[in-house]
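FYI - complex with S-adenosyl-L-homocysteine, inputs then prediction.
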Amino acid sequence: MKINLLSHSLNELIVLFEQIGEKKFRAKQLFQAIQTQGLKSIEDLSTFSKDLRQKLSELYTLDRPEISVNQISRDSTQKWLLKLADGNEVEAVYIPETHRGTLCISSQIGCTLTCKFCHTGTQRLVRNLEPHEIMGQIMLARDAIDDWGLINQERKITNIVLMGMGEPLFNYDNVAHALKVLMDPDGMQWSKRRITLSTSGVVPMIAKCGEELGVNLAISLHATTNDLRNILVPLNKKYPLEELLDACAAYPGVGHMRRITFEYVMLKGVNDTPEHAKRLLYLVYGIPAKINLIPFNPWPDAPFERSSNNAIHAFAEILENAGYSSPVRTPRGEDIMAACGQLKSESERPKRTLEAARETATLNLMDLFQD
Ligand code: SAH
Ligand code: SF4
């Protein structure tokens, strides 16, 4: 199989070129063509001789994932179901807004974690994505919305969030590799301030992520007691709230200008009362933070309901009165199941209905935890 070069760093390309007796500056030309012009095929690189193009094309490729399904929501959110070279599928979502655009990408096919409110969590982990498949989602999105060749300020995609399928800190090496290439000053020069990595709380990897990548950190918090979080986000049993919040407080660079984002999904009757809001304030006290309230996005057979608008606004008001910015995230792309936590490879759906039903049954236990 040909080696995909989409996420090769400049140094890696230089080594490849040395091996085939080619000059360093050629490697840089190729790197820039891939990263800044969106070169799709080595054959198209007209500054290279025909021989060299042919030699490279025999061994290497710049293929993006293939689009299996392209859906555009009523609110213009665009979701791509992408087929990878081995036939597995992942999803990426583009969310255009006024003066900005966010691309949400996946880090794994499925997820090992089983957060109870998350659709991806009902799909088992198939495998980690390779660096070129992570980068491939960005390349493909830029191709699809014609976002190449523009200077930074004019890009349609201004922000990249790792909030799609999978737990990025369980695929750290591949995610880090792709993000470093994305931020390379000779390439796309993506600013670390415009990249957000969301984690369900893999505590031992948090400091490393801050030190090596320096990207924004989002934490999927969702509960204010260990008892409830153990159920909603089972990883909490391994890394409880105290350890998670200590890691956030110590996140490199965090301060007035750089806040941690806490994501909090609003589940009716489960975590949405004023008492929960007050406990949340107590938990994040002392950590420069933003709190994103995410109205629960339903999926078939989901064992939860979205909190009422009144409950969400009362919750937000308590946070805001305490001085926190706590925007309520407007669900985007709901009609095409592209909203947070709804992502799941289409091909997985039919196989898992029995299992989903079983999960729903066990979740009646949740009643125990309503205050
Ligand atoms: N695995 C990482 C990255 C995925 S991010 C993480 O969990 O942080 C996806 C975000 O959407 C997370 O904050 C997740 O908790 C949230 N989410 C999952 N299912 C959801 C749902 N059904 N409705 C709203 N938000 C959901
Ligand atoms: Fe995995 Fe994140 Fe979904 Fe939890 S919320 S199951 S960690 S993708």
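Residues 111, 113-115, 118, 120-121, 166-167, 200, 220 surround iron/sulfur cluster (ligand 2) (CB under 6 Å). The chain has two domains: 3-61, 66-369.
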